[in-house]
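User: quick one
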Amino acid sequence: MPETTQGPRAPSGFNLPDFPAVKKSVIDSQIWRSIFRGGIWKDTPRDRAAHVIGNVWLHLHPVRVRPRALEWTYTWGLGGISFLLYLILTVTGVLLMFYYRPTVELAYRDMKDLEFAVTLGTFMRNAHRWAAQAMVVFVILHMVRVFLTGSYKKPREFNWGVGVLLLTLTLFLSFTGYLLPWDQLAIWAVTVGTNMAGATPLLGNEGPFGSLLGMRINNDVRFTLLGGTIVGENTLVRFYVLHCVAVPLLVGALLILHFWRIRKDSFSAAPRDPNEEKVEVWPHLVVREYIAAAACTLAIMVWSIWMNAPLEVEANPNVTPNPSKAPWYFLGLQELLVYFDPWIAGVALPGLIIVGLMAIPYLDTNPKGIGFYSWKDRAFANTQFLLGVAMWFILIYIGYYCRGPNFAWFWPWESWLTQQPPPPPTWNVFGPKGDAVLPTWLGVLALGGGGVLAIVGPKLVQRDLSGKPLCLGFAGLMALVAIGAHFIGHLAWLQGFWLVMFSVLYFYFGFVLPQRHIRSLEWPRYVITMFFVVGMMSVLLKMGARLGFDIKYVFTLPAFNLNI
Amino acid sequence: MYRKLFYTLNALMLAAFIVAAIVDYRKEWREYQGRYYRLMAADLEGKARQSADPEQTKRLRDQARQLRGTPLQIRQIIAKDLGRVDRCITCHVGMDEFLNPSLTTDLKEHPFTGHPDVSGIIRSHPLQKFGCTVCHAGQGLATELEAAHGYAENWEKPLGLGPLLQSSCVKCHGNLDTLRGAEVVAKGKKLFDDHGCIGCHQIRGVGGVISVDLGNIADKPLERIAPYNFSLIKTADGKPLPRRDWKLPAWIEAHMTNDTIEFVPNDPFAKYNKEPIAPSGMPDFRGEITPEGAKAITAFLLSQTEEEKIPIRYYVPGPPKTEPKFAGAAAHGKYVFDKHGCSGCHGLGGAQGRRNYNAMGPGQADPRTDMDKGREPALTDTVGTFTRDELRAKIQAGVPSSQIAKFNPDGPTPPLYMPAWKDKIKGVELEDLITYLLSIAKQQEDF
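Assistant: Done. Structure below.
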């Protein structure tokens, strides 16, 4: 008697549908079968594997991963969130494209329409803007995470390189998007950014040796980027096409490569127990990914409701705001312009940063510390890398918060409405008579000899040194020098402090650490590594020289436009 | 736990989207527009009740129902010739010609009133052709109060209120003096001429080149005015100018209601620069020009634009200016004196020289504090010492800054100097000017 076992019945005349039967008939229907592959879901390991393999979107995952890969405190979801932000940007970007026309007359007007007339226009623009800012942050954080867990090491060297390219392209995407609102912020930030391109050695009209290749303002690399000699109509169209079509396609292609290599190289997380079982991606990893994505989307939405994207006065090529600042992620480079000539700050250093980052997996052959956070096994690599990241953000902080009109130094609590006394006069150390204090030949000798010594030095001392007494001793020595210089020469106390601080920083990061950790590296790798280490420390020293001692150039050769 | 998170986050995302949609839907203009329809409908229903004619009652009731049912939407005038899209009528619904052809309403409540000058200006300037902002300024595309009225930070030209509105007439209309409704601008122009402003500030090639060319002063980007200077401007009651008013009209007006030395102090003691820089050379006009006069001059100057693209057929030249007739050479000379703005530096009628920072002047003692007592020469005192030929040579050649004696030798170069007028004043004008000048010279006592 089946009817009696079936619990309470619906009132007569109305029968509840038989849900399992309906579900079965839907799943067995030709339409469902044609869309979703596989049979009835029984939640067996085979089903779960098939779910990942048989789905075009999910199959970028492996079927099973190590348990550590699921831990929030291993990946922090950073790579996935970066990709999610890319998707959010694609969706909001496409929606914005419906309302945006990239011409000088209409671009700014369309911004106003988005703000005042388009349904959810402000929300879409805010989401696009904030997601773009967040993506830059998350991509950088993702890189830091990958570095700290040693995930770039063999066999993942190539994928790290792809990641560095993706980071560069992320910055470039954000930069090209900066121009599109066509307000004062846009054209002047882009003007600052692209002017650096004009200082490219050989290819820029203001760069060293540019004139050798016949570079003029109207045929160099900056001209190619701008489609003119100033930021104008052609630039807007170029940046629009780059921003909406060319670069996103390139990023998409590289992303596919990036993901595919993660799967092929196997995910980096190290086993906690050599015999541990891997866990299934469906549902364990997928659900975590969804949670991270949902939380992040929610955050972007709340941020977009709460804060409006900036929009300044319509672009005017004749009126330069004071100060004109680059987008925040390039402000570090703009801050470097204070200390270096444009071809160094805008081209050479960023180039070296990118090349240096890509070279890391080939230089760091330390087999220890792959797939987990370890400080002891990777003290040298972690310290130097984090120092570089910290310097990048300190420079950004200075550029963003401490620079006011005329790019003069204003503390964050100082009003820009006050006038500042002029900066003290600067001087050059080595160079031709009249341009500098000390002669050129001495500069070549000192800088060349010093550079070689700085690079080779740590490897020459092949025995264990005790770090603490060494550093304290050096600091004491420099303090004595500073005190002596105060009484004999005319070194101010503050300058003495700068002298001790920067020289001790250099001594620790540029000598003590390499001496302790990489003195046994074979020569070629050692020299290249030290080249980047000394290069990074030199930037720090030059900043100290400029801020503390008003030195403009340590070495100058005006005849060749070569100033360091 | 993940199941709970999954549902919670999904719900929150949906909620956030709904909040975004609500925030987007609840725009200020909806409130205003809806209120207009309700008020107008209530007004019509009231009339319907009073009406004796059943036909009319029914018609009025139908109209009221129709109004209540009107969907809320952004309403705009596209003034094609002028390249403007004005959404002002989204809130000022009473001025929408399609909804309210008479442009008058019985509503007293702002922003629902009709246009105050329907029979005059509107008849000759139909809204469908001109829109709103070409005369009233402000931000036509905006649909939020602060932004639409042009007080948003990213909009440079706020609403022209009161007499400032008249500056827009001059964009198309020539011959101010006879233009009805532009009396304030005409007064401003007259004050501008009488006080010799043009002696230093040229407009379209007429006048001196000592200071800023005012021919396109209405287009001056705010970025060109340092916030530091704005922060030093005082309003009539001595308080600092409110941040919201840091816009061009207040900047221009401050030049006549404040002493420019106070808000453009520059760097007379070389604290921030290698060489000392004199404060603004603009004399202190507060004794001569009233606050109303300052407002009139501001209204006149706000008409000086070259940015506005107005089709050539919109221009109305007005009746030709009649050339004035003069009783004699000296009278003509006085006209020339005023026409070229000589009184800008030498005072009204050449009677009293105006301030020239760090030039020589009466009553100077302390080189640090008395630099602002420097004066331009008073012509009534000095021209008597010249012969006719000397005077001619002086006017033609001018007096460059380098020849003006400094009171404080370490102080800045005095900002005012006499331009060489040889290309601008010549022939009969020059001769009659000299005649006039000699006629005002104080008689020298004979010894």
